[in-house]
User: Which sequence fits this backbone?
């Protein structure tokens, strides 16, 4: 059964709320998902239950003094919460390798607008491109996906950002092109770091040929990081 999903970056800073990056946005993501996908009422969502479960998951590993990746799943029927924590490793200080998807992805599913455990389109893209999420110099970290209309969308775990050499602006692909609008992406839009702009696959390929584009990706777990198409 499909559940809501959100992935937290926990860095010890006192309380659980203060220690989770973009905490309020994570809570709102769960509430919005309940309103859209559940027959239950989001007023029955208990934030205290979320905090207690995240605390339990962190304590079950290396404790609250260590940075963690915390995966949270929320049942859409009874709104129960389950969390699992693992130690968080840092991204490297160099660009990680990505490839352009060998096939387009259908982006009309309502579930695509919400982060859930239904990850089939992402898993399919990951599988057909042999993605391992490796951050080594010769590994493949992720894949840049594109839709049936020829527009770039996202990677399997992050939103994408791009900048042309002759343009001072950073851009991110719009949600209307079919992607999961991530929390870090929204934070960067709110701060004025970037603007929404569609990017055609053909435009990206030409910019790569001309060496006229810089690429980054982001999610709420890893923040903003450099990527390089190989």
Assistant:
């Amino acid at each position: 059964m499909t559940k809501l999903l959100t992935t937290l970056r926990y860095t010890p800073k006192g309380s659980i709320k203060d220690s989770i990056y973009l905490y309020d946005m994570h809570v709102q993501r769960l509430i919005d998902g309940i309103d859209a996908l559940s027959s239950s009422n989001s007023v029955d969502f208990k934030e205290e239950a979320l905090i207690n479960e995240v605390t339990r998951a962190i304590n079950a590993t290396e404790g609250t003094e260590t940075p963690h990746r915390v995966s949270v799943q929320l049942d859409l029927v009874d709104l129960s919460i389950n969390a699992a924590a693992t130690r968080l490793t840092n991204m490297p200080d160099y660009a990680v390798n990505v490839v352009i998807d060998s096939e387009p992805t259908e982006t009309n599913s309502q579930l695509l607008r919400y982060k859930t455990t239904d990850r089939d389109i992402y898993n399919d893209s990951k599988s057909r491109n042999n993605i391992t999420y490796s951050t080594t110099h010769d590994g493949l970290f992720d894949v840049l996906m594109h839709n049936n209309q020829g527009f770039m969308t996202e990677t399997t775990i992050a939103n994408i950002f791009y900048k042309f050499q002759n343009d001072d602006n950073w851009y991110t692909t719009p949600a209307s092109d079919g992607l999961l609008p991530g929390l870090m992406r929204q934070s960067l839009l709110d701060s004025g770091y970037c603007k929404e702009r569609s990017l055609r696959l053909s435009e990206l390929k030409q910019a790569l040929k001309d060496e006229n584009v810089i690429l980054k990706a982001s999610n709420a777990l890893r923040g903003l990081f450099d990527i390089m198409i190989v």
About this structure: The beta strands are 3-10, 68-75, 81-87, 96-100, 142-144, 159-164, 170-172, 194-196, 213-219, 223-229.
